[in-house]
Description:
alpha+beta, DNA polymerase, domain 1, 3 domains, five-stranded mixed β-barrel, 8 helices, globular, hydrolase
Amino acid sequence: MFAYIRGKIEDITENAVIIEANGVGYELICPNPFQFHGVTDTVKIFTYHHVREDAQLLYGFKTVEEKELFTKILGVSGVGPKGALAVLASTTVEDFAIAIEHEDEKFLTTFPGVGKKTARQMILDLKGKLTFDIRTDVTDKNPSTISNSKALEEALEALKALGYSDSEIRQIKPELKKLEVLETDGYIRKGLALLMK
């Protein structure tokens, strides 16, 4: 129904951004709403319109690849929008595709709500179908390339254990992702520095 919405960010909550376009405020549920924090220019957010019996929801994504991956994951038996969103909030499109191609169940089970059975179902349903518009050939990459994401996730869990809230951690995650590959301790130190600013 909506391919994308272009407008200005009016508000950001833990789960969504409010974007105003032509006088209408749209609530878009996003994997990481805080990635739009500080954006003052007009933005283009790709959308997925999800209809169920009791609600109509709009999901928002920074890139078309994120949106396409969301729809692919929704096609996996037993995975709903909440689960698909949790995957996108925790990793990149490319790293997820690499994990699927290499049948890395251990990596897939790090996502909230994904057990071994769901991980196997994801591999069964998605293997060979996720090379769409990904700029590198995921089948040629070594599984070790996703170790960066694992170290980052471990660091974020450690920060949570130190008492920082999910919203605080979501705000710094995009900055940590931009860093060169670090060990878990390195991400923790950088994360603490950002949180104490």
